[in-house]
Specification:
single chain, about 190 residues, alpha+beta, OB fold (Dihydrolipoamide Acetyltransferase, E2P), 5-stranded mixed β-barrel, 3 helices, RNA-binding_domain_S1_IF1
Length: about 190
């Protein structure tokens, strides 16, 4: 690094000889750090956290038991049929209505909802086919709701796929094709 003396204008020509050897620095000499005027730049502290990945490991306090929340007026239990993206899901409510549910901002990217989960939704007065997700029940809480009689006995829990709420789809879980010997011989 080239260190230059600060640029000073002098009245006498005697100083011009000593300044001529530093003329390669030009007018930039005043902007560079000098030995007389040392300035230090304070860099921000490195906190050791980078990006959004640090937000992922904060759910350590979920081990403790929370109070079981029952439905109130204007609310209904539902089972998620499928996730639609953009903070929305399709859910079958216990009253038999399929509704488009919106995941509220407090739960978005903090509480992960998957198909087959039991949720508590708030019904809308002005749109019967839409609802808002209020709470996601943990698997043990969903079993307690079923034991208390809040959920019907036909509700299948923790199977990853929603179903069991429709009585007409009773045999939907065992769909398969059975070939007989005659069909195999034709092939």
């Amino acid at each position: 690094m080239i260190r230059c003396k600060p640029f000073q204008q002098s009245d006498s020509d005697s100083d011009s000889d000593s300044h001529s050897e530093d003329s390669s620095c030009g007018n930039m000499a005043g902007t560079l750090t000098t030995q007389e005027n040392t300035t230090s730049v304070v860099m921000p502290k490195n906190k050791g956290k980078g990006g959004k990945n640090r937000k992922r490991g904060k759910n350590e306090a979920d081990d403790e038991k929370r109070e079981l929340v029952f439905k109130e007026d204007g609310q209904e239990y539902a089972q998620v049929l499928r996730m639609l993206g953009n903070g929305r899901c399709e859910a079958m409510c216990i009253d038999g209505t399929k509704r488009l549910c919106h995941i509220r901002g407090k739960m978005h990217k903090k509480v992960w909802i998957a198909a087959g989960d039991i949720i508590l939704v708030g019904l809308r007065d002005y749109q019967d086919d839409k609802a808002d997700v209020i709470l996601k029940y943990m698997p043990d809480e969903a079993r307690l709701l079923k034991a208390y009689g809040e959920l019907p006995e036909s509700t299948r829990l923790n199977e990853g796929i929603a179903g069991g709420l429709d009585e007409e789809d009773e045999g939907a879980g065992d769909d398969y094709i059975e070939f007989e010997d005659e069909d195999i011989d034709k092939i």
